[in-house]
Amino acid sequence: MKKILLTLVVTVSLLSCNSVKNVNTSNIANAATLLSSLSSNSTVQQISSLFSLLDSNKDEAISSTEAIGSVSENFNVLDTDSNSSLNLTELTGLLELLK
Question: CA–CA separation, 50 vs 92, rounded Å?
Answer without folding.
Answer: 10
